[in-house]
Specification:
This protein is α+β, with helices and mostly antiparallel strands. 34% of the residues lie in helices and 24% in strands. Helix 2 runs antiparallel to helix 3. The longest helix has 16 residues.
Length: 141
């Protein structure tokens, strides 16, 4: 681990490169950035998704439309607030399926943006279930 002259931890080169790439994408491509944040860790838990649209996106109404579609079937109560011209906060309320519904909402955003979504985990502790692929489980030798 290396330190900067001011005492802060020096970021590895891959982290610096990713940060620069994300910044470039937000200024020059049609993409959005989603940052997950757990607002309250004590019951009832509450989370917020911070959504920032890139400079190339002119029409921001799709975020509200996707939220409206999501809200129609989701178990978790949600609220959307427009913070700035191209920034939104989506409050994810308390529910047993909070993390699953949150993941589905982000998936809907990814589907609309054809995968051009920068997803930052923030302080979210949710890890989606990932089954390990074993070749012998699916194919015979």
């Amino acid at each position: 681990m290396e330190f900067n002259p001011d005492g802060s931890i020096k970021l590895p080169s891959y982290a610096i490169k990713k940060k620069q790439n994300d910044k470039f994408r937000l200024t020059s491509a049609h993409c959005l950035q989603v940052t997950k944040e757990v607002v309250d860790f004590h019951a009832p838990k509450k989370c917020t998704l911070h959504i920032k649209l890139s400079d190339k996106i002119q029409d921001t109404s799709f975020v509200r439309n996707i939220h409206k579609r999501f809200d129609a079937y989701a178990e978790v109560p949600t609220k959307i607030k427009q913070i700035g011209e191209k920034e939104f906060d989506v409050e994810i309320g308390t529910c047993f399926r909070r993390c699953t519904d949150c993941t589905k909402f982000i998936g809907m955003l990814k589907e609309h943006m054809v995968g051009n979504v920068i997803e930052n985990k923030g302080n979210c502790t949710f890890e989606p279930y990932q089954k390990n692929f074993e070749f012998e489980d699916y194919f015979d030798d």
